[in-house]
UniProtKB/TrEMBL annotation:
CDD domains: PolyPPase_VTC_like. It holds the Pfam family VTC. It comes from the Bacteria. Coiled coil: none annotated. One of its GO terms (biological process) is polyphosphate biosynthetic process. The lineage of its organism: Bacteria, Bacillati, Bacillota, Clostridia, Eubacteriales. This is Polyphosphate polymerase domain-containing protein. Residues 7-232 form the VTC domain.
Length: 261
């Protein structure tokens, strides 16, 4: 059965494409492997819809960096072609730096019925019902609706010796606040400058010392980049670093250079 709960710490960094290639070399040399979605370094794309109130209550609170915050999103690993295609509804909470993500798998049609009509998917699975209870409570408390579409290409690696340590690279991040339906074409405005990527580390205890050495060697520094948070800043009209309100340009497909050894 697919994992429903993830508890970990996360750190984010903005990197250039050149830094990405250098870091990938060193991660592979350290024995890390590409996950099942990106065998050989190929990218895969994630499609997300974030939910918020009419007043953007959720994201307005989030960008103020409270000790506790939570958000709801719909995630798909490919654009659905019918209501029967699979998606995940996820609640992501951050409590004093620790992230807890809970999710439930369902069809796209079931997710829309749950969000718009309050009709939750039927299941006999106790753990899934627990997650659905939490999502149902969230929907009642916050009265949210679809607000933002976000998609991006990802390369993900995991450690064979430490299953809790993962590194992901996200590029070609695009967003829109119209056509908030996964049946629509994957298009929007870019959140990054050309060639920029968001690197994220996911871990349970501490970042390995050898990975800190890689960051230092490549002059990579923590940025705290939030995709939804930065989208909201741009939406509010701020001239924010790394945000350009323009059509998404083609950027190098991260992980596409298989000749790197």
């Amino acid at each position: 059965m697919a994992k429903l709960t993830f508890k970990r710490r996360e750190k984010k960094f903005l990197v250039s494409f050149e830094q990405y290639k250098s870091i990938i070399h060193e991660l592979l040399d350290r024995g890390m492997e590409y996950d099942g979605y990106c065998a050989g370094g190929n990218t895969y794309r994630l499609y997300n819809i974030y939910f918020d109130s009419d007043t953007n209550r959720i994201i307005r609170s989030s960008v103020q960096h409270p000790k506790f915050k939570e958000k709801l999103r719909l995630r798909a690993y490919f654009l659905p072609r019918s209501d029967d295609d699979p998606v995940f509804l996820e609640i992501k909470r951050k409590i004093k730096g620790t992230v807890v993500k809970r999710r439930a798998a369902m069809s796209y049609g079931e997710a829309k019925e749950f969000i718009h009509c309050g009709c939750r998917p039927k299941t006999d699975d106790y753990m899934v019902n627990q997650v659905l209870d939490e999502i149902e409570f969230y929907l009642k408390v916050y009265d949210v609706k679809p607000k933002v579409y976000l998609s991006y290409e990802r390369v993900a690696l995991f450690s064979r010796t430490d299953p809790d340590f993962r590194v992901t690279f996200d590029g070609n991040i695009i967003s829109r606040r119209t056509q908030l339906d996964l049946f629509c074409e994957d298009r929007g405005e870019s959140l990054l400058d050309d060639g920029e990527l968001v690197m994220e580390t996911k871990f349970s205890g501490a970042i390995p010392a050898w990975f800190c050495d890689i960051l230092s060697k490549n002059k990579v520094y923590m940025s705290g980049f939030s995709k939804y948070g930065n989208e909201y800043t741009r939406y509010r009209g701020s001239d924010f670093l790394h945000l350009k309100d323009r059509p998404a340009p083609p950027i190098p497909r991260i992980g596409a250079d298989k000749q790197i050894q």
